[in-house]
């Protein structure tokens, strides 16, 4: 009862074609294909950046002092 034979699927396909028509099924197929293609393109664009991002500079220039940096060791010595 759980499995269908090829004849069952052919009858279902025939009924679907009779209800919707071949032109409507063709439009649905092309819309579905376009959606899948758009999804794949979106996944490619989101995963790999086109322009490489340069690494950020971690330290400051020698001799320059940053006013927002707090020296924790100096604070503990007081």
Structure characterization notes:
By secondary structure, the chain is mostly helical. It has a domain of 27 residues. The model has no long low-confidence stretch (mean pLDDT 76). The chain contains three helices and no strands. It is elongated.
Q: What key attributes describe this structure?
A:
mainly alpha; 3 helices; cell inner membrane; single chain; 78 residues
Secondary structure layout:
Elements: H1 6-20, H2 22-47, H3 72-77
Main location: membrane
Pfam families: TatA_B_E
Subcellular location: Cell membrane
Brief characterization of the structure:
By secondary structure, this protein is an all-alpha fold. It contains three helices and no strands. It has a domain at 21-47.
């Amino acid at each position: 009862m759980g499995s269908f034979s090829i004849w069952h699927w052919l009858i279902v396909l025939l009924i679907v074609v009779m209800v919707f028509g071949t032109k409507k099924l063709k439009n649905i197929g092309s819309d579905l294909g376009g959606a899948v293609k758009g999804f794949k393109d979106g996944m490619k664009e989101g995963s790999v950046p086109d322009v490489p991002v340069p690494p950020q500079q971690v330290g400051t220039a020698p001799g320059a002092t940053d006013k927002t940096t707090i020296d924790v060791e100096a604070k503990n010595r007081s």
